[in-house]
User: What shape does this take?
Amino acid sequence: MCGINGFVSRKYSGEEKTAVIRRMNAALAHRGPDNDGVWNDHLVCLGHRRLSIIDLSAESNQPFFSNDRRYVIVYNGELYNYKELKLELQRASQGSADVPYFFKTASDTEVVLAAYLRWGNKCLDYFNGMYAFAIYDTQENKLTLGRDRIGVKPLYYYYGDEGLIFSSEVRAILRSGIKKFTLNKEVIGEYAMYQTVFAPNTIIKGIKMLMPGHLAEYENGEATVTAYYSLAKISASSKDMSYQQVCHKVNELLTHSVQQRLVADVPFGAFLSGGIDSSAVVGLMSKVSSEKVQTFNISFDESEFSESKYAQLIAKKFNTNHHEIKLTPEDFLKQLPEALSAIDHPSGDGPNTYIVSKATKNAGITMALSGIGGDELFAGYDVFKRMAELQKKSWINAVPGFAKKAAAFAIRQQKRSVSGNKIAELLSQPKINFNSAYPLNRSLFTKKELEGLFRNAKPFEQIEKIMRGIPQIEDHLLSAVSVAEINTYLQNTLLRDADQMSMAVALEVREPFLDYRLIDFVLGVNDEFKFPHTPKKLLTDSLKDLLPSEIVNRPKMGFTLPWQYWLKNELKSFCEKNLKEFAQYDFCLKTEVENLWLRFLSNDKTVTWSRVWHLVVLNNWLKENNIES
Assistant: This one.
């Protein structure tokens, strides 16, 4: 797990490019405290910051060269099937011209490079892991960039007159010094609506993110981007299987996924909230690991937010070495400045992950497993129920438009709440279906509310494009919702935050639920086997007696901090100051943005904490990074 940088340019001298990469490497020091590497030739300069997880020796430092020194790689991530691939690459394929690769290290980095030498771009089809890499061919002067299927590891780039520059973090590109970067005003509406910016765009104009499951090639000043994997290819993989057979397959795939993710040469542990997903991961870790599992949980004085009793139950059942981190508002306030400073790309959810990551790292752990992805894959969120219920109410589209508008008006008047406003807006849609309802379900504001806060807001362009790419297959509505969840909230909020906040303290996080083989299989399971009438029934049935009933049947809480209280008390002055500054931007309707904060303070039910906090975070991030509009 590391940070990678690169700069390809004919405009800059080798010395100048090296200076650029050294600045970028310095900006990524937190991601890789174990080594700082730079390599340069006449056209390209590559940089690497290393966090050693597999093969801790100096021989595995990067940039790393092939045996003939024609190819050089910088790589961030973990290849979970690297041992199997290494065996394949050490022997020649019978009846072909392939020759064995002679390995000089025990690292997965060398396996990635050797696989590229054997199979070219097709090597990505063989990989199972989380990764972002760059391989440069010194003979052909060609750069190849690749990113993992689900988008666990980030890869940002800027492509312009200066050349091509890429990095694991946006801020490293900002600190490169090649140009003055500015705010991407086109995505402000999207950020306000979804507390993030959907890839390939970012909050910075001109800086893009390589999409998950894609590779890019840069040669002779031209860049081409192609997809090698897509979640849109849902196939009915289990149509001839019984429910018991499906459960057995899920158990097998998830167990193997956990087992593969325990390969490390450093101490490891797991985040344990006490929910179904993290409990399942900890249970399977205890089952397949020869070592006692270390678990970490955050607890609060505010009992309604604390899940500690459930985490303790799981820790006791599996005899883990459990660490409970007690958090008070005062503790959080002390860490908030560093948590906000750790944000690479703004979102409203990152500090949560920072707190638990820092505590885990301070306990001597360098790698931790997480339950991220379980809700998206096994229909754990309320949005799955809402979409299933909506499908049963297709008759609404036969109701005359004037009647729907009248109903919408009545709901707005009688039910002043977030849900009431969303229902009213949905009824105002020309056609009510999955494609029109899902973007509204995940939004923080209605379109009408957003237009009252920002000028020229374009909140739906990218999410509507994502929706058009999701297949609509009979008996697979929940799989379509899963794809929508993975392509929006998971990839652009949860995974981005998990990476930037854990790597801010040099902690690697692995997500067993995001093994692509498990995802492909579960997406192919019919709705009848995973309909959300009980919490993640397919998952809990697949694990049989692994999880106690107290965990399976407990109310869903989610991992959150008591923001509603804090924003009105300990964080009040900080929020007020940032919102007043944010309201000064020319794309804001100043009075309405300021009024949003006043409505929150007066307990307006249509303004929850999440509708103001992410704007506070954005303004603070823009100031810290000296970004102008």
